[in-house]
Every structure is written in structure tokens, then in C-alpha cells.
Specification:
Strand content: 25-35%
Number of helices: 16
Shape: globular
Helix content: 25-40%
Radius of gyration: 24 Å
Structural class: alpha/beta
Low-confidence stretches: 4-10, 191-200, 478-484
Largest sheet: 11 strands, mixed
Oligomer: single chain
Number of strands: 28
Length: 484
């Protein structure tokens, strides 16, 4: 029987990192660098040769669950929040082991212990609006040279200029550590240190950090922002749900959360600093008193009261601002962002001045004009039924618009409820243009009030040539569509 390594201080705990697809290699090697005994299980059988070599170089041993019977003593399981295996299933391979369980999110918080104590740190999660909110926060914190992880990449802003650290990077918790490490390498190039050009090895080019995460947060945030639970979709082979995963938001020092989500899913949670926001609920800490929607700059008057800040102050007041937020779901994101900044103690005038610079994200939520046509794009890999409904509802006069819906499947954990979506679309008194795999699938469930175009670029040509405006709703990785 294999035993944990022993020293004069006693047994060293074995650490089994499960899932090498979603950042597990980074977690395993980072733990091994701290001297821990690390094992790894390639849950989805996707390990690349170069990653296998990396694990081997740090003495990380690849095992299968049945190999647990060969070990004794303590076993710390590091698992992804969407893991399809239950804790009891893992324990069944060797009931005699002394198990502890930590999520990927939790272990990242441990690995980054002591990092960034002197800078504001924000973690953003929710079913919809995460990337949009991250880039609104970026505008407000731009003078603090923010370090960002989002679905658009790991990015460092220095003197308002964008430095791409890594473009193709997911928003799994392990990539928070990856983003921090990449930023360190930029600020501390080995060649310059060895040549004496850079004397210190702890230089930093950022003074704030904003991290987007799909299924909860790590807990390193001074403020954790939970935007919504627009759909409480199942995860982990129906063993858990989006709301359960995002409950990790309460590991942050201060939590800003949509009031409706708090009341529905977390009304039993105890936390010292919870601030709520809502479009209309006047019992929340922050709500919109007046909203004047516009496709360019929506005007809103915001009331906030008894907001708890990270510095232990309690503040109240009123803010009037203008920013790009053409629909109610966009305004809800704005409210969450404003509440987050207030919780950090950012001056309201600074928020008002900076957020007006947010113009949307090209290739995501964006408005532009081509010839005589207004093009509104809602492109998102996590697009779901509720988001599609909200996008359509933000258009006042649908007669002036073509509405196009389409996209790809197999992009994220969240899938489309085609029955609900088709039922909604069949009630619209306007023709629908369908495109992509999603459009083809939906077409089988719609009435005759639609047209199918295989190539999404043809949708743009159709609208422009007919002098019609276009609401283009597309479920896809924004990089694919931005290459058109």
C-alpha cells in the first residue's frame, strides 16, 4: 500500500487534483511548487503531451480513481465545482482515507494568499452580463491600471493602453492564478533581471484587479459581484446548479448581489457585508428611480442607501449618469457595477465621469451604423433563452428591424431551451431570420414566419441592402464572429 511521504513532522497530505481540462494542470503544478505531494486525475481524458510532460517535471503523478486504494492517511481532493462525481463516489474507492474536499476556486484563493493586499480586487460572476460588467468596471478603474481576466482574455491596462497577456484563455478559477503570473512575467522579465536592468523582482504594473468567473468566485475579491441568476441551469450531471455554484460569492469580503437573486436563492445566507441592487425594488441598497432608455446613451437616476463599504463606512446618496445600456438587462448590469464601485469607496463623481466612456464591446454587446442600417449585436457564448427574450424586448419598434437568431452549440455549460424559445418567437408579429446550427434546429419548431440563411454574414447584407435595422443575436465565441 502506498503511504503518504513522512518526515519528522509526521505525514504529508496527498493532494489529488481532479479535472486537467479546466485549469487543473496549472493548479497541480502551482501546488507542487510549494512542496506539496500532488496527484492528478484527467477526468475528461484531454491531457496534452506537453502538459503531461509539465506535470512529470514537477513530480505530479497521474492516477485513476481506483488507484486511491493504494494510498493511506490524508487525501485532499481538489475538484471542479461542476464535477460529475459525488464526494461519496470518490470515497467509495477507498473508504479508509481521511478525506478533505476543496473546490478549484478555494485552492486558488489559498495559492494567492497574501497577493494584492494593497490593491482593490473585484470578482464578477452571474449567468449573464459578466464580461460587459468587467469592462464597465475597467472604464471606472482605468487610472488604476487594472489587471483583467475575462472571456475576452487576460489583459493588463497600462496608462490606458491595452496589453494582451493571453487571448485564448477561459474564465476557470485556475486562470486567475495564470493571469497574475503572466502579469508578473511582464513586469519582471528574466533577461532584464539577469542583466541588472531591473533590480527588483517584485515589480507590478497594475494597481487594481478584476476577475470574471463563470461558476462562482475564488474569494480573493474585496468585492464579489453576482449580477443575476437569469436561469438556474443544472451542472455536474444534474447533481448541482448554477445558483449553488455561484453561492461561493459569499466568500468575498463584501458582496454586491441582485436583490431578486438574493431573495430567491440565498435568503438564509449570513454575511457581514451584503449590498443589494435592483431595477425597481426600493428595499434594495441601490435601485433605479428613473430610466430613460436610448440606443446610444441611457440616462438613469440611481438611489443608494446604507451601502456598506470595504472600509467599514455606510453611505447613502443619489447618482445621475449616462452610459451605453439599451435594455433593462444592461441597466441591471450598470447598477451592479455602480454598487460595486461604491462598496469600494470610489467617489460617485468619478463613477459618473468614467462610466459614460463605456460604449459596449465590439463583437459582444455593441451598436454601430453601416450605411443606413443600425446594427445592434448581442454575441455571447453563453447566450440563453432569457437573454434572447430580453434582447428582443429592448427594441421599441420591431417593424424597423430584422431580428436574426442563430449560433453554435457546445460552447458552454448553459444550453438553449428550444421549446421555450420557439414558443416566445412564435408570438412575435415580425419575421425572424435564423442562421447557424442553433437557427437550423429552432426552424423545425417555428411557424412559417421565418427565413433561414446558412451564412450569418448574409444576414448583414440582407439588412443593409434593404435599408433595415438589424438586431443580431448570436450564440458563439465572439472571436469567430469578429473575423467576418
Amino acid at each position: 500500500m502506498k503511504a503518504a511521504l513522512t518526515t519528522s513532522l509526521g505525514a504529508i497530505m496527498n493532494n489529488l487534483v481532479i479535472d486537467l481540462t479546466h485549469g487543473g494542470v496549472k493548479i497541480a503544478t502551482s501546488m507542487a511548487k510549494t512542496g506539496k505531494k500532488v496527484l492528478a486525475y484527467d477526468l475528461y481524458n484531454t491531457l496534452k503531451d506537453k502538459d503531461a510532460e509539465m506535470l512529470q517535471s514537477y513530480d505530479v503523478e497521474l492516477i485513476q480513481p481506483e488507484d486511491l486504494k493504494e494510498y493511506e492517511g490524508d487525501m485532499n481532493i481538489i475538484y471542479p465545482i461542476h464535477m460529475p462525481l459525488s464526494f461519496n463516489e470518490i470515497k467509495s474507492y477507498n473508504p479508509k482515507l481521511n478525506y478533505t474536499f476543496k473546490s478549484h476556486h478555494e485552492i486558488i484563493c489559498e495559492l494567492l494568499e497574501g497577493w494584492g493586499l494593497d490593491i482593490p480586487k473585484i470578482e464578477v460572476t452571474g449567468v449573464k452580463g459578466k464580461t460587459t460588467s468587467v469592462f464597465m468596471l475597467k472604464e471606472i478603474l482605468i487610472d488604476e491600471n487594472p489587471l483583467i481576466l475575462s472571456s475576452l482574455g487576460a489583459i493588463l491596462f497600462e496608462n490606458k493602453k491595452e496589453i494582451i497577456l493571453k487571448k485564448d484563455i477561459s474564465i476557470t478559477p485556475a486562470n486567475i492564478k495564470e493571469t497574475v503570473d503572466l502579469a508578473y512575467k511582464i513586469a519582471n522579465p528574466i533577461c532584464e533581471i539577469s542583466e541588472g536592468i531591473v533590480e527588483r523582482t517584485d515589480n507590478r504594473k497594475y494597481n487594481s484587479a478584476i476577475f470574471e468567473s463563470s461558476l462562482g468566485v475564488s474569494g480573493i475579491g474585496d468585492v464579489g459581484l453576482l449580477l443575476n441568476i437569469a436561469e438556474n441551469y443544472p451542472i455536474a450531471k444534474n447533481k448541482s446548479s448554477a445558483s449553488e455554484a455561484k453561492k461561493q460569492i459569499f466568500r468575498c469580503k463584501c458582496v454586491c448581489i441582485q436583490k431578486e437573486a438574493l431573495d430567491k436563492y440565498y435568503n438564509d445566507v449570513k454575511h457581514d457585508k451584503i449590498n443589494t441592487f435592483s431595477l425597481s425594488d426600493r428595499t434594495s441598497n441601490l435601485y433605479a428611480e428613473k430610466i430613460g432608455y436610448d440606443l446610444d446613451q441611457t440616462h438613469m437616476e440611481i438611489i443608494y442607501k446604507n451601502v456598506k463599504t470595504v472600509s467599514n463606512n455606510i453611505i447613502s446618496g443619489k447618482i445621475k449618469l449616462n452610459t451605453f445600456a439599451p435594455g433593462p438587462h444592461h441597466v441591471s448590469n450598470v447598477l451592479g457595477v455602480v454598487l460595486t464601485c461604491l462598496s469600494l469607496g470610489i467617489d460617485p463623481d468619478n463613477i459618473i465621469d468614467k462610466i459614460k466612456n463605456y460604449k459596449g464591446i465590439p463583437g459582444r454587446t455593441n451598436k454601430r451604423t453601416i450605411k443606413n442600417s443600425i446594427i445592434i449585436e448581442e454575441i455571447n457564448p453563453g447566450l440563453n433563452t432569457q437573454a434572447i427574450k430580453e434582447s428582443i424586448n429592448m427594441i421599441d419598434d420591431l417593424k424597423n428591424y430584422y431580428i436574426s437568431i442563430g449560433g453554435d452549440y457546445g460552447i458552454t455549460c448553459e444550453e438553449i431551451d428550444e421549446e421555450k424559445l420557439s414558443e416566445f418567437l412564435n408570438k412575435l408579429n415580425t419575421p425572424i431570420i435564423l442562421t447557424g446550427d442553433l437557427g437550423l434546429s429552432i426552424s423545425e419548431k417555428l411557424s412559417n414566419n421565418y427565413e433561414y440563411l446558412k451564412n450569418y454574414s448574409d444576414v448583414y447584407d440582407l439588412a443593409i441592402n434593404n435599408n433595415k435595422n438589424l438586431l443580431f443575436i448570436y450564440r458563439s465565441d465572439y472571436r469567430k464572429v469578429s473575423q467576418r
